[in-house]
Structure formats: structure tokens, C-alpha cells
Specification:
Layout: E1 4-11, H1 15-26, E2 29-34, E3 52-58, E4 64-69, E5 82-88, H2 91-102, E6 106-113, E7 119-124, E8 130-135
């Protein structure tokens, strides 16, 4: 799978509704996963288990839009509700991008094994742009 660059939107408790709205606008297939499905508690509040951990809308024309709910204990302010997402299975390429992006920036979540089996990390580059990097795991 080639490396993809996509926008990733963050919401406060409305990711499902927003992504369903965008599906109505753009058409396509929408996949949703909750925090509870992966045993990844969004916070200490069990009510957050049904919140969207990851949503991906793939349109008939090939556009991809991703989104998720932001846990209650995490800041979310207008203008900061997006990240750029790099994903694919070329580990060497993606780790190279990660290393370059964190140079002079800040690691928010280290690039490490994630509950869904991939390697995932979050950072903010030296210009203040938030990034997520997801390296697909080997097929079982």
C-alpha cells in the first residue's frame, strides 16, 4: 500500500454525526471504530467507550477524510481540531518522515505498537502542525 497523506479531524462527542454528515455530502464508504472496541479507554470514564476512536470516509472519487472524538480530558479548541495523517505499510519511508517531523518539534505520543496492531505516533512539527503516523502491521 502506498503512503497516503490525509486530513484528520477532531471532534468533541460529535465525530459519528459529523462523519455521517460528510458521507451524505461526498458519498462513499464510512468505517467507524470506538474506543471500547479496542479496549482503549479514552479516559477513566467508561461512558467514553462508545466514542469514535477512528472514522474513515472513502469517497467514490478516492478522497479520504478521517476523524475521531477527542477524549474529555484532552484540550480541543477551534482551529486546533485537525492533524495531518501519514499512513501506509512502508516502515522505512514512514519512520523517515517521523524522524524528520519530530526534529525540532515535540513528540506527543511516541511511535510505538498500538492496540490495533500497527505502529502509531503523534507529534507537532517545529511549525506547530500536528501529525499522526500509522505504519500498518504485517498481515497475520
Amino acid at each position: 500500500m502506498p503512503t497516503q497523506l490525509n486530513a484528520y479531524l477532531s471532534f468533541r462527542d460529535t465525530a459519528r454525526q459529523a462523519m455521517e454528515f460528510y458521507q451524505g455530502v461526498f458519498g462513499g464508504e464510512l468505517g467507524l471504530s470506538t474506543f471500547g472496541e479496542f479496549g482503549a479507554a479514552a479516559s477513566d470514564d467508561p461512558a467514553e467507550a462508545d466514542k469514535v476512536m477512528h472514522a474513515q470516509l472513502t469517497t467514490p472519487s478516492g478522497m479520504v477524510l478521517m476523524g475521531a472524538d477527542t477524549p474529555a480530558g484532552t484540550d480541543l479548541a477551534p482551529g486546533s481540531n485537525f492533524s495531518m495523517s501519514l499512513s501506509g505499510d512502508d516502515e522505512r519511508e514512514l519512520r523517515g518522515y517521523w524522524d524528520a517531523l519530530v526534529e525540532g518539534g515535540q513528540v506527543v505520543e511516541p511511535l510505538a505498537q498500538a492496540p490495533w496492531g500497527d505502529h502509531f505516533g503523534m507529534c507537532v512539527d517545529r511549525f506547530g502542525t500536528p501529525w499522526m503516523v500509522n505504519i500498518a502491521g504485517s498481515p497475520a
